[in-house]
Design a protein that fits this description.
Blueprint: H1 2-9, H2 13-41, E1 44-48, E2 52-60, H3 61-68, H4 73-82, E3 85-93, E4 96-103, H5 105-117, E5 127-129, E6 135-137
Antiparallel strand pairs: 1-2, 2-4, 3-4, 5-6
Length: about 140
């Protein structure tokens, strides 16, 4: 215990202040970085006007193909059925794209649930035919 007192008392006032502020400051910086990371992964919901909302979602690149559909068929049908405005940001954010949904809360929720239900197809496994004529997946 006496060595701790000696080492603490040997520090200058400036060093004591720096040490005292350094630990909470580094914890604060770590917390801020964590919050920024977490917020970037969450959906953003913004109220626009009295009734409209805007939802910003990050969607995996593979899922965007299924949301848009061949020649935009899926997204056109979704827009027509819900009345919501749906825009896909042209910039890639890593392996994700940003999807902007706007409209009444009910419209936005229907589109959001559809987007969350989309799962890209798993890679196809090689199919083999055995001697009996039955097909099976290799590796299963």
């Amino acid at each position: 215990m006496s060595t701790e007192r000696t080492s603490w008392t040997s520090l200058s006032t400036t060093q004591k202040i720096a040490l005292g502020l350094g630990i909470p400051a580094s914890a604060t910086v770590a917390y801020i970085l964590y919050r920024r990371y977490r917020e970037s992964r969450e959906e953003r919901l913004t109220f626009v006007g009295e009734d409209d909302i805007e939802i910003e979602m990050r969607v995996p690149q593979e899922a965007v193909k299924f949301i848009i559909g061949r020649q935009g068929a899926n997204i056109k049908q979704l827009r027509k059925q819900t009345g919501a405005r749906i825009d896909v940001d042209t910039e890639d954010v890593g392996d994700e794209r940003v999807l902007l949904i706007s409209g009444f809360p009910v419209q936005g929720e229907v589109v959001r649930r559809f987007v969350l239900s989309v799962r890209p197809l798993e890679p196809k496994l090689p199919v083999t035919k055995n001697q009996r004529g039955h097909y099976y997946y290799q590796g299963s």
